[in-house]
Amino acid sequence: MRRNVLRLAGNVCLLTAALGLTVPVTAGTATAEPTRTVRAAAAALPQFRSVRLPISGTFTGPSESIAVKGTLDVTVITLPNAAGGGTAQIISSLDDTTGTGLTSNGKYYLVGAQRINAPFSAAATTTLNVKPTFLLVPPTGAPSRVQPVTVTVTVASTGAIGAISATVGP
């Protein structure tokens, strides 16, 4: 996955550099002015950041409250627009995450991954809060979809990725 992201970022860099080198000429003028500055071209490059976060807490499941403990891998890729703002892809994946039912003392497993696209502002720093959906596998019965985790990501208007955190609960 990281190799593909890095390859994509490299291709986007090459494409951006190629586009930045072309200079449109306006009819009736003898000189050509670049339409974008080097700073604007650099700001439009994708940003990438990946973190591994320990998670723990309690959430309300389908039949009882569940105390959860495990690891959440979060990868954020921002695709900024040249004018600022853009789209952030937030990929959340659970790793070795289990839960214990507070009433039944039964063991639950939480599994899954989800990618969520969210826009970020061109005007200021944006705080994105997303709730990925995971699969809750109970000790008995059918698995169900739950959203026990809120992932929070701070993104600057240029696409620079700031703090990434995760909390369990409502």
Q: What labels describe this entry?
A:
7-stranded antiparallel sheet, 2 helices, 3-stranded antiparallel sheet, 170 residues, alpha+beta
Estimate the mean pLDDT confidence: 82
Give the helix/strand class.
alpha+beta
Q: What is the distance, rounded to the nearest whole angstrom, between the alpha carbons of the first and last residues?
A: 30 Å
Low-confidence stretches: 12-36
Radius of gyration: 21 Å
Estimate what percentage of residues fall within beta strands.
Answer: over 45%
Total DSSP helices: 2
Describe this structure in words.
The protein has 170 residues and is an alpha+beta fold. Helix content is 15%, strand content 51%. It is built from two helices and ten strands, in the order ααββββββββββ. The chain has helices at 2-21, 38-43; strands at residues 47-60, 65-80, 86-101, 107-111, 113-120, 126-130, 134-137, 144-146, 149-155, 161-168.
How would you sum up this structure in a few lines?
The chain is an alpha+beta fold.
List the helices and strands and how they pair.
Blueprint: H1 2-21, H2 38-43, E1 47-60, E2 65-80, E3 86-101, E4 107-111, E5 113-120, E6 126-130, E7 134-137, E8 144-146, E9 149-155, E10 161-168
Antiparallel strand pairs: 1-2, 2-3, 3-4, 3-5, 4-7, 6-9, 7-8, 9-10
